[in-house]
Every structure is written in structure tokens, then in C-alpha cells.
Amino acid sequence: MTGNDAAILKVLVVDDHTVVRRGITSYFDLLDDIELVDEAYDGRNALDKLAALSAYDSLPDVVLMDLLMPRMDGIAATAEIRRRYPAVAVVVMTSFGETQRVHAALEAGATGYLLKDAGPAEVAAAVRAAFRDEVFIDPAVARALTREMVAPPTGTATLTDRERTVLILVAEGKSNREIARELDISERTARTHVSNMLTKLRLQSRTQAALLAIKEGLVNPS
Domain map of the chain by residue range? Predict the structure, then answer.
């Protein structure tokens, strides 16, 4: 899809780091077949921008989405974008390569998964693949997924970064309200994270979680 006769792919870039957005913008400016239509600094801002673009029938073909952002993260934003605008593809881009994030992103409806150290050509390839409704996964992440299929993770290896943090806070004796305050999330979300963490670890209580965290060396015994 190169050359002057190729379709122009419209892209919205979502990242809370200005330097990342500027870098991607500078690269897209050099391409004939990819056009940056707007930028957003977090998930909520992305939804606002998409609503405005939709009003003028100018929705992008692809959203290039960071995962870790304030207010609304990339996974929640991806799910909402796919619900509201099913014709818009989402390619997730993050500095983390854990397969748990890949699963969450793909389950939310992303059609691509890039690491932030990907080269410009790889970013463009992922955007073009998403436009063709093809799944594009960073080779390093694909290898990790393959290894996981052979030897599925167990124990704390099954936790996302957020769930691991919640496990540590639980082990430190924090209540759901205190966890919510510490992570700047709602108490309901904190309760969900605790429940998911206990379910993944096949534990029945916060006390069991605290003992496991000590055993794994995540916290020091008090």
C-alpha cells in the first residue's frame, strides 16, 4: 500500500508522552499513504477526539494506542472505541511486553500489538495490517506467547503489573479504600483488582495472599 495511488490511511495517535506523539507524527509526515488526523493524551481525550471527528464523518481508520495512561488506560479505551466505532481498528503500543497485557488488549478488541522500541517501518506495517483487518503482533511478543502456550505461567507470573501491585498492597495490610487512594482509582475498581488477583492465584483470603507475597519475596515479613 505505497505509492500515490494507494489509499490514505487516517490515524489517531494516543499517548500521554508528548515526545512519543511527536516522534510518530514526524515519521508519518514522511509517508504518502498514512495521515495523522489528530492526537490525544489519554483514553478519555481519545474518545472526545473521536466523537468530534465522527460528527464531521472524519473518523480515523486506525487508532495507535498507548496502554498505561492516566484517567482512562489504553485497554479500557480500546474496548470503548471498538464498542462505539466498530469500523475503527486499534493498534496497541506499550513499553511492556508481558503476555498478560497482550491478552487483555486483544480481548478488548485490538488488532495489533507493538512495543515502543519498534522501528518506524514496523509501526507503519502494523497500521497498514490493521487497516486490512489483519492481526499484527510484535515478533518478540509473539515468541513470548508461543512459549506461554508450551508452558503456561503459574502463580504470581499470571498477574498483570497492576494486580501484582495490588497483591503487595494487600500484603501490607491495606484496605480496598486505601488501595484505591494509593492507585488513584475507585474503590469498586480496587475491589475488582483484589478479586481478580485472588482468583488467578487460587486463594480464598487476603491473609493467604499476604503469606504468598512474603514467600515470593514481594514484601518483607513484618
Answer: 9-148, 155-215
